Batch of 2 targets.
Target 1
Amino acid sequence: MTALPLYKRPWRKLSPRQKLLREKSLAVIGELRNSKTKSLPQAANDKGITVKNVIKHTNGFKKVNGKPVVKKWDRIQRIMRINTNGQEKSVTLVDSRTASVVRRYHNAVKQFLNTGDKSKLSKFRNKKVKDSKGKLHQFETNPDEIIRINQRIEEPEFYEVYNTK
């Protein structure tokens, strides 16, 4: 029996090191999809991971004229946080297209929290994303709930390094 390739393994079956490498690899792929000028070695180096590990953990490339070119989308599981039903939840998503929708939602939430402009949230009203188990999660678009969720998120404590007194 052969083991599943790393990019096909479910998130829950990865070791902590493999999860970290997958996250870094997905960050490299995301950067390459957004930047037309960066090369795979540059992006991998920026994220502190080898090109070999990026390829092993994602299978997110195709060969074009002998060079690796990032695919438009992938079916690699990743964990992301979403606001749903008045709370923040971690969900396992199955592809990059769904992850892009969640990222756009988070950008809309961030813009709302920074400016108070609710119009960006309206695009996500009654929109849902499906997790790896097929369960649908509706985006929270109620401004009051979003503010409550944001207030419940703990901020990292600031440790005073220098005594300024």
Target 2
Amino acid sequence: MDFQTLIDAVKKGDVAVVTTLVEQGLAEGADPQLILDDGLLKAMNEVGVRFKNNEVFVPEVLIAARALNAGTAVLKEKIGDNASKIGKVVIATVSGDLHDIGKNLVKMMMESVGFNVIDLGVDVTADKIVEAVKTNEADIVALSALLTTTMAYQRTVVDALKEAGIRDKVKVMIGGAPTTQAFCDDIGADGYTADAPSAADKARELLA
């Protein structure tokens, strides 16, 4: 199949064309895994690079992600939910904080490079995060906080992971407007990034 046409359709956010191309590719006998890796995920990765370089912005990322999701929905029956997954990430905006745009962008970028992301939503307590890490056997916990009053709760989550005896089994990433590398180091987290595409790169780096 013509992967470049599929890539272009994802980047444009053309759900109808993406769906049709994926269905046609499967009907022609194309490898579902190749459609995912060399078509859908490659397109989203290119969008991520352009976003990182300020060549496209949040609306463009969102419409491309919608097209990506439409394509993967067609593939799911053929390759299952866990195909091409390089690790499991539990992501959440911490307790007391209701912001989710940044978290959602990070989720999309991580999924675009092959992570299986379990999104717990916003205003999530430490015990729920710990339980999700255990239940899903997560490789990474990604914590978002957009307020100076809630960023301290990221430390609470790190401490809760220690108390549960699983801190050494999972990497902790933090992000959000008030957070910094210095704060990351101070609370004992493993990674900090200032934007969503960098978060996906950092996640891969932590598991390398």
